[in-house]
Structures are given as structure tokens and as C-alpha cells.
Amino acid sequence: MRRHGVAAVVAVLAATVLQTTAYAAPPPGACRNSDQGGFPVRELPWAQRLLDPRLVWPYSKGAGVLVAVVDSGVDVDHPQLRRPGKVAGGRDFVLPGAGPGAFDCVSHGTGVAGIIAADPTPGIGFHGVAPDSTILPVRISDRDVNDRGETLRIDPQVLANGIRYASDAGAKVINLSLAGYDDYAVVREAVAYAVSRDALVVAAAGNGQGQRSESVELPSYPAAYDGVLGVGAIDINGARMTGSQVGRYVDITAPGAQVLTPTRVEGHAYVDGTSFAAPFVSGTAALVRAAWPKLSAAEVAQRLIATASPARGGINSPAYGAGIVNPYRAVTDGLDLAKPAALPAYVPAAPDQARIDRVAWEGHVGGVAKWMALAVLGAVVLVVLVAVLRPRGRRRRWRLGWAATLPTEPVVAEPPEETFLV
Questions:
Q1: Which of 108, 177, 220, 251 is catalytic?
Q2: Which of 116, 186, 405, 406 could form a disulfide with 283 if both were Cys (CB 3.0 to 4.6 A apart)?
Q3: 167 among known catalytic residues
Q4: Which option is the CATH number for 40-332: 3.60.20.10, 3.90.1700.10, 3.40.50.200, 3.40.50.720?
Q5: DSSP characters for 117-182?
């Protein structure tokens, strides 16, 4: 019995291992000091409470929209991203060989993809904005920082290649959770190419270390390029996240301080940055593009801006842009939310014969009363005439007579003569 019990336990453990075996593990040597993942967080995060994209899911969940995450890759082993068809293979532009980009060493791209499209999971509060959209992972970096903790620069040519690949792959939304102070022609041209292919490019405004004041504008690319929707970050109080860059390139804002994201392999982690504000806007764009497929990328951007919720900075603020992205309004404003009700068949009501008879009787009685009133009035007039004429007729013995002839000239009464003293 004991042997059978041990065998059963071993079988269960083996089945568990098979079910949780990673099928998107990084290639050997691809990751140095890779992120170990996190622990599941069950509470509903404040960002999902604020935006509450579940309200719009009856009308759109982003189905049929390909969203490119040009980032550090996406780990499809995460339980909320592993549904078949959720994450496409994509492409890796960092390692030689042009392999798929469906793995991640640092959780950055996985967190971005999760904010956009993570599936709801029982017992877990976190979920993505557009869970039925498809993620295209485009891996253009392998680490956020170097061994000394310094931010690593991304090769502009690699970034440009990734953007062009996403455009050619048919991505309708391209998320760029990256920013820099330098304007590289190769990146600018790649963004223009994506815009010409009707892809909505969404870019983080950047996390300027010296961005304390809202009166100072730091450069930020690719957010400042034409046709790009620049995204700033707010905190749980609705205030600009410290460091979220300020400038004319900030078109809209979204949660970016202490927001919850998926980590590679499994679990979640709280993170800061405009990098994680941008995917809230990209996910909303996917909802809109699914609900309004005839809108161009520019029209989708215009719709996101027009339906944004008011923010502290007012309209067109350099710190808050048009306001806070609003998934529900972005999708449903102007949308006929209910199917037209079918009109009931016309069935004429049966005539009310009793009422018809009553109306006819009332009309008859009214007519009789009217004629009776006229008859009584005529009798009264006749009695009066008889009462007046009868005495005169008796005096004249009922003989005809003529009225007295009137004088032809009026008789003038002469005054008596008067005597005046002179």
C-alpha cells in the first residue's frame, strides 16, 4: 500500500510538472541575471479600479486587433498570457538568427503585454484592458540596466527594424514603452513608415530624472514624432507621477505609479514609469479599433483624446495632455448600445358598442333639448308681443290706422319780446 501511495504522489507531481513546464524559456545564454518572477497578487489593482475596462467588454474586448509590443520580449509562460493564440511568435532582433520574440529576461515587455491583453483569472484581481487582442512580441532589448545599474541605451537601428517589422506584420497598434532625448533619423523614418501603414503608434513620454517642475520641457522621442500618441503617467491620487516628463508631446495620461503588472514565468509586481502608462492607452486603442474598424489610426487617436476624463492640469496641459484615458467612453460614445426593438404588430381594438350607443343617445338628447329651448324662447317672445299689442288693439277696436303726419318744416318757438335798458 505504501509503494502504491508513493507512486501515486510521484504521478501527481509529474503531471503537475508537465502542466507547468515552460514552453517559451529563453535560449541558453540569452539572459544574464534574469528576473526570477513574482508572486500572485489577488487584490484588484487601483489602475483597474480607476479605468474599469470590464464595463466596456460587452461591446469590445479587442478581438481581431494585433498589438505589437516592441520591448524586451514577452514571456508566454505566464498563466494570464499562455492561452493559445494570445501571444504570437513575433521576432527577436537582439540575438542572431531572427528567432521568435516570445520570451523575456527582465519582465518589462511581459508587464506591458499583460496590461494590454492579460486574461482574467479566477481569484486574481489583475487583468488586461483588451483580453481578446493578440500580442505581437518584438524583442529589441534584453536588459533594462547594466551590471552597474545604469540604464542601457537601445540601438536605434534595432529599434527601427522592430518598428518596421511590426508594421509589415499588420499590427494596428504599436506600443513603444521607451523614450530618449535624441532624435535619430532612422527611428523617425521607421515611425513615419508605421504611421503610413495605418498603425497607431503609442509611446511613453519618458521618466526624466530631473522632471520635477511642470514648467520645464525635456525632449522625448519617439513620443514627439508626428503621428505618435504620447502618454504621461499619473499616480493613485490623479497627480502627475514624479518624473513623468512634461511637454507638448504629452497627448494623454494613464496610471503609471505603483501599477501591477505580470512578471516573467508567473506572478505579479508593482512597477513605476510611463512605460506602464502607455500600454493602458494601447489596450484602449485595441478596444476602439475592434469596435470601430473603419476608423483610421489618426481618427482612433482623436477619439481617445476627445473622450479622455478630466485631469488636474485641465485641457491640453503639457503635463496631462487631454486628460486620463477612458476606455468606456472611447468605445461607447456614439455607439448604439442596444439593438432596435421590434415594433409589435398593429391589432385594431374592437369597437366599444356601448360607448357608441351612449354617445349617440347623448347627441340625440342634446338636439332635442336645443330645439325645446328654442321653442320655449319663441313662446315667451309671442306672449310678450300679445301682452303689448292686445290693449292697443282694443282701444282702436282693432281698426287699422295711420300714424300722425310729421310736419314738413319744424315749428320754431319764438322767444317773447324782451325790453332791455340802454
A1: 108
A2: 116
A3: no
A4: 3.40.50.200
A5: HPPPBTTB----S-TTSEEEEEE--S-SB-TTSPBPPPPHHHHHHHHHHHHHTT-SEEEE---BS-
